[in-house]
Design goal:
Radius of gyration: 23 Å
Largest sheet: 5 strands, mixed
Structural class: alpha+beta
Number of helices: 4
Number of domains: 1
Order of helices and strands: HHEHEEEEH
Distance between the termini: 107 Å
Number of strands: 5
CATH class: Alpha Beta
Helix content: 25-40%
Length: 175
């Protein structure tokens, strides 16, 4: 094969590789696919479309936090509980780091405390205060076959509890 033919074949193969493995192509770019997965997850939760979570969370999903359930059904139940406590629950990604098989996201949750809140059985019950609440957390998901399969998280529950506390009535001085 002469030099010109080899150059043309090389250029064609390079161009073919650039088209087939172009950034943004979910099949060829797992980081882009995982970014889309994170976006879909937050959108499904914010629109209360818990049935759509079947496309995001695997049936055998492992949750390493104490308060959320295992598997897809456990996560759907946990979100239903969140929505009962906070009907205007809204989740926003503040920052993320995404690799081929892991997603780390720092997020913010906003909600109005207009219903009784109990984060887990046996935990304190906080009566409604009407306050607008905001708290942050960090989640790490392991991804396999295009779905979340494992999850670790830390939420600023102390911060949200402090926001829900009612202030004691001011004491008046006795004459």
């Amino acid at each position: 094969m002469n030099l010109v033919c080899r150059m043309l074949v090389g250029a064609t193969m390079s161009l073919l590789g650039a088209v087939v493995f172009a950034p943004g192509s979910n099949a060829a770019d797992p980081v882009a696919a995982n970014a889309a997965l994170l976006e879909k997850y937050f959108a499904d939760v914010n629109t209360r479309n818990l049935a759509a979570l079947k496309d995001v969370i695997s049936d055998n999903y492992v949750q390493h936090g104490a308060y959320q359930g295992q598997g897809l059904a456990g996560m759907q139940a946990a979100f239903r509980h969140d929505f009962e406590m906070f009907p205007d629950f809204h989740w926003t990604v503040e920052d993320s780091v995404i690799t081929n098989d892991k997603i780390v996201a720092r997020f913010r949750i906003t909600a109005t405390h207009d219903h009784p809140v109990q984060f887990a059985p046996g935990a304190p019950l906080f009566p409604p205060t009407g306050k607008k609440l905001s708290w942050e957390g960090i989640s790490i998901w392991r991804v396999a076959d295009g779905k979340f399969v494992e999850h670790w998280d830390v939420d600023d529950l102390l911060g949200v509890v402090q926001q829900m506390r009612t202030q004691p009535a001011a004491q008046t001085k006795q004459p």
